[in-house]
Specification:
Blueprint lengths: L2 H14 L3 E7 L9 E6 L3 H19 L5 E3 L5 E5 L3 E6 L1 H7 L1 H4 L4 E2 L9
Parallel strand pairs: 2-5
Antiparallel strand pairs: 1-2, 1-6, 3-4, 4-5
Length: 118
Amino acid sequence: MTTLEKAKSIVKILDNKKAEDIIVIDTRKLTVESDYFVIASGTSNTHVRALADEVDDEMKKQYSVEVDHIEGRATGWILLDYNDVLVHVFEPQAREYYNIERLWSDADRVDISDIVID
């Protein structure tokens, strides 16, 4: 599985679980830490945790891909680190506050319109 396929698989999982405002940022030209960021919002802290749990569970079950580590389970922002793909799941207020999209505005966005159902 390529890193882009991994990122798009994560997008599908998030979309199926009703995540909001999902985007994928291509960070390959800007950092060696990861290839892609997947960023999504949940509607509440409970929804954020459910989204992160679903990604973790489904990546293991469907693709045999294990998360390296998870941070922030008790906050409004959970990070799932798949080494080459970092998944950020936010409550709306935390996403607005940290504004990762602005911090990484030099990165290209990946077109996921064929995956995300509006």
